[in-house]
């Protein structure tokens, strides 16, 4: 796509230009980290998985076919990597759910509202949170979410509806 601001950097990075890849990294780091953090719920794990995303991105960049926006493809890759790791670490996730909320405290006053949303998100059941993050925050269509999570399309829609309803109720009651 010609309107994609990343196109030239992608082409150069595919040809081995590390500076071009660094520009892609810097352009997309915060968004990738935000998505990973909201999917996994732990800052240390989010740091590790974000690094893994960019390592795999360097290796897989040549498979990008310019049929969609790079950011759409990157966030799909990010979701797959993160969700695969969460499946592998299911026991860790159970420990997290029972631990304190330290990992979702605001790091400064500037992200207090974001932290409030993050705190509420982590009250949701795992799959409902993942569907909500991917659909509401990342704009992924339900069919894509269903494919990524290995669930039915109707399940994705139902999980999103339940998550949205729960979040609305919690916000009303605060």
From TrEMBL:
Signal peptide: none annotated. Residues 116-167 form the RNA polymerase sigma factor 70 region 4 type domain. It holds the Pfam family Sigma70_r2. It comes from the Bacteria. InterPro entries: RNA_pol_sigma-70-like, RNA_pol_sigma-70_dom, RNA_pol_sigma70_r2, RNA_pol_sigma70_r4_t2, RNA_pol_sigma_r2, RNA_pol_sigma_r3/r4-like, WH-like_DNA-bd_sf. Keywords: Sigma factor, Transcription, Transcription regulation. SUPFAM superfamilies: Sigma2 domain of RNA polymerase sigma factors (SSF88946), Sigma3 and sigma4 domains of RNA polymerase sigma factors (SSF88659). Residues 24-91 form the RNA polymerase sigma-70 region domain. Belongs to the sigma-70 factor family. ECF subfamily. This is RNA polymerase subunit sigma-70. It comes from Idiomarina piscisalsi.
